[in-house]
Amino acid sequence: MPKTNKNRERKSKKGPDRLEYLSQLKSEFEESRSEGNKLQVLGNLANFAYDPQNYGYLELLEIPKLFIGSCYDGPPIRREFAIGGIANCCGYPPFKTFFLENGVMEAIFSNLSTPRIGITINSLCAFIFLFDVNYPNYLFDARLWFIRLYLKYQEKFV
Q1: What are phi and psi of 103, to 5 degrees?
Q2: Which domain of life is it from (predicted)?
Q3: Sign (positive or negative) of CA dihedral 9, 97, 125, 155
């Protein structure tokens, strides 16, 4: 949550405050039928996830849940943006706990072997930020995925 209410009240001179704007983005993502609109909104939300000042708003609006849901469906670019959003905000301890308790590692591992390099990079970054010695099974799972990834693309590593 924001440390002060001052952050919550910040407004631009011409637009809504940050919470209202993020709420509008979430509504647009959920209501839009256009994949292009969904991608644009998800990309915007992933960018907002980079700024710690937004963590309280993202938590209030359950945006991390939206990121997890987008890791599994839609075109590859949607998964890339969703995992990028996870990587951007998973350093925040409440989000890290949320992600680990809600199966995000499975989503990350399932997207590691994609031929789309952006998804692979975002997945690796999220894995590094989420790695926690309190969840030792993920290290074993990660080793298996890296081995599979290597075997799939071994000619590119030589």
Answers
A1: 75, 25
A2: Eukaryota
A3: negative
Beta strands of the chain (E only): which ranges? none
pLDDT-based confidence at residue 46 (cuts at 50, 70, 90): very high
Q: Hey, what CATH topology would domain 5-157 get?
A: Leucine-rich Repeat Variant (1.25.10)
Q: pLDDT tens-digit profile of 71-117?
A: 987 899 999 999 999 999 998 999 998 998 898 888 888 887 788 88
Question: Which of 138, 136, 133, 66 is CA-nearest to residue 95?
Answer: 66
User: Nearest-CA neighbor of 126 among 46, 44, 38?
Assistant: 46
Share of the chain above pLDDT 90, in %: 49
Domain ranges of the chain: 5-157
